[in-house]
Specification:
Order of helices and strands: HEEEHEEEEEEHE
CATH architecture: Clam
CATH class: Mainly Beta
Radius of gyration: 21 Å
Strand content: 35-45%
Helix content: 10-25%
Largest sheet: 10 strands, antiparallel
């Protein structure tokens, strides 16, 4: 009995140490991502948005996006634009405060030619809109290649990130969002397109997924943006 208890105790200690190491490794990956994002005090960028959403017709839209540490965000457009904030500043805001989340490595996965480490992030605050973030991180470049965010307000949002000249700041050249069109919070002034309504398609689960494509050009990083821009 004593020997059994000793073995059991050793197993518990081993599991605890393994869990702690996995958590520390996860935090190391997240610190790499967060450290790169923290180099961005502010930025403005031109963006073209294309929406492929069931039963909704929206023409491609050109917008200008402004961001400033740590949570100022604005989209400037003359038309109707759908920009999921969850893929922009929600992750960076959570990762900026180590005490606001717990994290664990889930595994590895190769996306294209990039070997990624999958890290699950769970916010500790009950008031957070984010329930769970699953991040596919490139450990070499310390950037997020893909994310799956489970939120209270908009369901699950899958985002793919593609990088170019601004990779040193962790800023993508292109993002593709896949959202649940039933749960995703749409702007109030967007209505359904009756020409796209079809009973058979309504019953097809695949048609419940929508995609939002955003391509970025002309980044202006750390040039200084007045707070007044976000109050207009």
């Amino acid at each position: 009995m004593i020997q059994y208890k000793s073995i059991l105790g050793i197993c518990i200690v081993f599991i605890s140490i393994t869990h702690l190491c996995a958590q520390n490794d996860a935090e190391g990956y997240l610190l790499g991502v967060s450290g790169k994002l923290k180099k961005v005090n502010d930025y403005s960028v031109q963006a073209n948005i294309k929406v492929d959403m069931p039963f909704i017709r929206i023409l491609p839209t050109d917008v200008k996006i402004y961001y400033k540490q740590k949570d100022k965000f604005k989209v400037e457009t003359k038309g109707i634009a759908i920009v999921p904030r969850q893929g922009f500043d929600q992750i960076s805001t959570v990762l900026a405060d180590k005490s606001s989340y717990t994290a664990m490595i889930q595994g590895q996965e190769t996306i294209g030619n990039t070997s990624t480490t999958i890290v699950n992030v769970i916010p500790l605050s009950d008031t957070s809109d984010l329930i769970l973030a699953k991040l596919w991180i490139d450990p070499i470049k310390s950037v997020i290649i893909k994310s799956q965010l489970t939120t209270k307000s908009s369901g699950t949002i899958l985002t793919e990130y593609f990088y170019g000249n601004q990779v040193d700041y962790g800023l993508p050249d292109k993002m593709i969002f896949t959202v649940d069109s039933k749960k995703f919070k749409m702007p109030k002034n967007i209505g359904a397109d009756p020409n796209k309504s079809d009973t058979k398609k309504n019953n097809n689960k695949e048609n419940k997924k929508g995609k939002i494509y955003i391509e970025f050009t002309n980044y202006q990083v750390n040039k200084g943006i007045s707070d007044a821009v976000f109050k207009k």
